[in-house]
Design a protein that fits this description.
single chain; about 200 residues; alpha/beta; globular; 7 helices; 5-stranded parallel beta sheet
Length: about 200
Amino acid sequence: MAGLLIYPVYYWYPTKMYLQIPQYPFQFRLSQWEAEQIGPDAIHNINRFLNNDRDGMHLLIFGSKNSGKTSISVGIATELSIKHKPCYYITAMKLFSMFFDTDERPAGLWNWRSSSVLVIDDINAGHPIKQDLISPEHFLKLIDTYSAQNEINRNAIKNTNTIWVLGSSDTGKDLYGKWHEMLENIGVDKKDILSVHLP
């Protein structure tokens, strides 16, 4: 009888840890998302991100306020956590303070720099809030503010599979282009930059 319990414990205990360490704001699985809301191109890009087997792929999620940007990003990361990928969820404001952190020892088993998948949430709210509080230029300037950490921070962002939860604007293509340009500026290959646009 004890032998029957070994496999469930062996699998589910590590899975529980992979789901707890990222500190997701809520529980959400991709199966809860209504796929017809986002279209085939977005589904294709989400699947590419989910099935990616190398480092440095970036998924930009654009959408208006309350469009479900956070839900879909948590859902994607949750699926990867269940596959035992070290994921880390963080808001943009909290991440900015961590750019200055020189302590490489994570408080848990991994931190934002040592994770395989990083979710950066609350970068911008999106429509109807028209002004972007954090521009790509501002984000890059914050990465580069503390000279001793510049290269470490750039490499961490560049080489981590990252989900960017962004806003929307009347010039959505321009916004996409600016974030695309910022990522290329830190060394991300353009073929590794995907996007999802939520209504």
